[in-house]
Specification:
By secondary structure, this protein is an all-beta fold. It contains 2 helices and 27 strands. It binds fe (ii) ion.
Length: 387
């Protein structure tokens, strides 16, 4: 919801008759709103009743991945080594979870005609590898590597990749509250300020998608927390002839994040990208290093007593960590101090720049690792600070 957007056809005035071409039957208006009727919203106009459902059944697709015995420890795992693959829905694999968010990945090797809707969570989807088109009831967005999708809760969508033989990979963060642009990046009128790390021009927003009035049996996979349900609906889910408002999926590519640089080390809030009520999400991108004589670019050891720190490594050589590579996840729990491994601090002194790309998620509630972390674990990581 960076700004007001409008696509397709709609009546001149909200909540008034809007007739189809036959001049008799009505398009169906749906208000999609947040925070009751007080948050951002959009008005959609459907060919058919958006509430029509023929059949519902629970699927057995939920994988049991809880790992209750996992100790509180430093974790590093190689998500690319997870064996599970599938389509953009079935490949979803949880790595870290708490009552407010889930961090996972999906290695997408198959296409599907199924549609997906997350009924309980807003989603951040990072396109690590692969290109294609995202289709939704708000329109389509052509995607490329580095794209960060913000998908409002209850959006119906599909990710269609150009090539299923490529190493397509998504990193997905589910949140029980919506992803927001930080308020201090916006002025009193909602416009991005001049000192924000991105501007309105950096967003990709939905483009017009020809609405479909097709009838039949369409399979929508609805996720509700840990459960998946199959809904068979009688109309094509993208039968929306027009919509307008502030609530819709949009994209910010990590390469369009304009970093801030300090004379001495600046803490992670300067890398802030999105926030929810229960965690923040930051972008680490290539940038010149701190330029004061003797400045140490790597972070000092620190204990963030109110948050767990997760990093998803995208590309480049990460300045403060040993052994991580593309697709690695590290978890440093809030109850323990963390910092660079032996040698990394000395190595960084005098360095002029970094070429790293990474996404950081700091959660206010402790995260629990799943069996997917156990399967892809770097067993030496927890002891990698021993000199
Ligand atoms: Fe940290």
């Amino acid at each position: 919801m960076p700004f007001y957007h409008k696509l397709g056809e709609m009546p001149k005035v909200k909540h008034t008759t809007f007739f189809k071409k036959d001049g008799k039957s009505l398009y169906r208006e749906e208000l999609v709103s947040s925070k009751g009727f007080s948050g951002v919203y959009s008005n959609k106009y459907h060919y058919n009743l958006p509430t029509a459902v023929k059949k519902v059944r629970e699927l057995n697709s939920e994988s049991k991945v809880d790992w209750p015995e996992a100790p509180v420890l430093y974790y590093h795992c190689f998500t690319d080594e997870l064996k599970k693959t599938g389509n953009f829905i079935s490949a979803r694999s949880e790595f870290l979870t708490n009552p407010h968010c889930t961090i996972g990945t999906a290695r997408v090797t198959e296409d599907t005609d199924d549609f997906f809707r997350n009924a309980y969570a807003a989603e951040y989807v990072f396109v690590h590898r692969g290109t294609g088109t995202f289709f939704s009831d708000f329109g389509k967005i052509v995607f490329e590597e580095g794209d960060q999708f913000i998908i409002p809760r209850a959006t119906t969508y599909q990710f269609k990749f150009d090539d299923y033989k490529a190493h397509n990979k998504l990193m997905i963060v589910e949140s029980d509250t919506s992803f927001e642009l930080p308020t201090h990046y916006r002025n009193d009128y909602g416009q991005m300020t001049e000192h924000a790390p991105y501007s309105e021009r950096d967003f990709k927003i939905p483009e017009y998608l020809e609405p479909s009035d097709e009838k039949g049996d369409f399979r929508v996979i609805v996720k509700a927390g840990k459960k998946f349900f199959e809904h068979i609906v009688p109309h094509h889910p993208f039968g929306v002839v027009g919509w307008d408002g502030y609530l819709y999926p949009y994209v910010l590519n990590i390469k369009n994040y304009h970093p801030k640089v300090g004379r001495i080390h600046l803490p992670p809030p300067v890398h802030l990208c999105f926030r929810t009520q229960h965690f923040i999400l930051c972008n680490f991108v290539p940038r010149p290093f701190d330029f004061y004589p003797g400045a140490i670019p790597t972070p000092y050891f620190h204990s963030n007593i109110d948050s767990d720190e997760v990093l998803y490594y995208v590309e480049g050589d990460f300045m403060s960590r040993k052994g991580v590579r593309e697709g690695s996840i590290t978890l440093h729990p809030g109850g323990m101090p963390h910092g660079p491994q032996p040698g990394k601090t000395e190595e960084s002194v005098g360095a002029k720049e970094t070429n790293e790309y990474a996404v950081m998620i700091d959660t206010y509630a402790p995260l629990r690792p799943t069996l997917n972390v156990k399967e892809t674990l770097d067993k030496d990581y927890a002891q990698s600070w021993l000199e």
